[in-house]
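Deviation from plan, reported transparently: BJW complex.
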Amino acid sequence: MHSFTQHLLKVGKRAAFKMANRPSSDMAAFREKLKASKHLVVLTGAGVSAESGVPTFRGAGGYWRTYKAQDLACPEAFQENPSLVWEFYHYRREVMASKFPNPAHHAIAECQKWMEKEGKKLVVITQNIDELHARADTKGVIELHGSLFKTRCTKCGNIEVNKDSPICEALRDKGAPDPDSKGANIPEKLLPRCGIPACGGLLRPHVVWFGESLESHILEKADTELDGCDLCLVVGTSSVVYPAAMFAPQVASRGVSVAEFNLETTPATQQLGGHGFFFSGPCGQSLPTALAPF
Ligand code: BJW
Ligand code: ZN
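Because the crystal trials were delayed, the predicted structure below was used instead.
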């Protein structure tokens, strides 16, 4: 055969393969899968809280002062300047007082309720630390990256729920986000300290920073759900941060349908395959339709 014809055939085959393996945006077909599902996993990222007014990490609002969130969400930053990192987390804790779950969080929580009534299971695995899923009344949320409202002692390891506002007097009125704000340089002894009298160590936010391992019991719980689910939703995550970025491909490789809800495609989208779904647009609009009770 003429090499040019061969080339055309190859290109055509590749295009046909791509088309067949492209995720579908057929909502009715997705709803059929949902109706049949007995074990649904919903993996969420910052985009699920975006319509509540919580900034995402890699979007335009992902800066605090002149720092990218990722620059402060690492152990090196805390070691170098715990005051600055505490100002950042103190600010984010205070901001959450004026933020509320949005229709996406509520749709997931409602779906969990009706699935449970039918003897089925919906489990949320979130990368978010804002606790908005729990505030929407979703039960048993698996928090991969910890919580803004928990502290961990750097000396004795004690973990505690802490919803104090401010978390300590020295942080009162600190943490302003504008780029020209100066660091408060709070001495370590005035930063949040461990309440265990014999300890008194420096507290840190109980969150997972870059380069740190996720808690093994949390990862095991997540793995069990991912291995047992028969449908998976991936909502509002850029799918670039590991290990969460592996979860959708891991489920799709078992031949299970994964439905992605995002404003834009992500590295996960190409790995959903022909049995996957992609729904473009704000999830506060798409999820209430997708997860409406039957
Ligand atoms: C909407 C929307 C709307 C907006 N509707 N959608 C393997 C390969 C390469 C690197 C690594 C690897 N394994 C580990 C690493 C290193 C590292 C990593 O992944 N780096 C990558 C960046 C390359 N991972 C780690 O260090 C992890 N630890 C680990 O694996 O330990 C073992 C190990 C260590 C080192 C090397 C090898 C192994 C720990 C990761 C911890 C992440 N921590 C943070 C901070 C948490 C605390 C805090 O909040 O301050 O977690 S970083 C930040 O990213 C945060 C988020 O949970 C996480 C994910 O971000 P997310 O949620 O996806 O947000 P965005 O902003 O990125 O995306 C928002 C999306 O929403 C976008 O797609 C929008 O389009 C969309 N959207 N509005 C629908 N209305
Ligand atoms: Zn302690």
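Residues 3-20 form the longest helix (18 residues). We consider this an acceptable substitute for the interim report.
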